[in-house]
Amino acid sequence: MHISADKIQEFGLTESIKCPRCGKDVYMKLLKATNGLGVFNVSLVNLNIDLFAICPECNSMFTVDDSIAKRAGKNNSNQFTMINDKNIKFLRELK
Ligand SMILES: [Zn+2]
Asked: Where do the H-state alpha helices sit in the chain?
């Protein structure tokens, strides 16, 4: 997996959620972009989203609903239970 932006940090894991793409129950890895410029050649400026979830089974990358991302990013307590298959949106597949 290539992470092209400098300011990307791993942000933790979600609770077990069902991946909308492969249908498996997985703990998705969360990535947070802190420079707002782009990651994986996707412009974040236009999307205005900075939290991503990645399925370890099918390598699909999802954006996390912005309002959820903002709340989850506020503190270090475990807010990731708010993230589920209803508020993530498929963005692209990682090679
Ligand atoms: Zn998947």
From this structure: 44-47, 66-72
In sequence order, which residues have a C-beta less than 8 Å from that of residue 39 and are 6 or more positions away? 3, 4, 5, 8, 31, 33, 52
Q: Tell me the chain's radius of gyration from C-alpha atoms.
A: 12
**Chain segment 34-86, per-residue pLDDT in tens:** 655 555 555 555 555 578 899 999 999 999 988 887 776 565 555 677 889 99
For the full predicted model, state whether its pTM sits above 0.85: no
What is the distance in A from the centroid of ligand 1 to the CA of 61? Answer: 9
State the distance from the centre of ligand 1 to the C-alpha of 44, rounded, in angstroms: 22
What is the distance in A from the centroid of ligand 1 to the CA of 43? 23
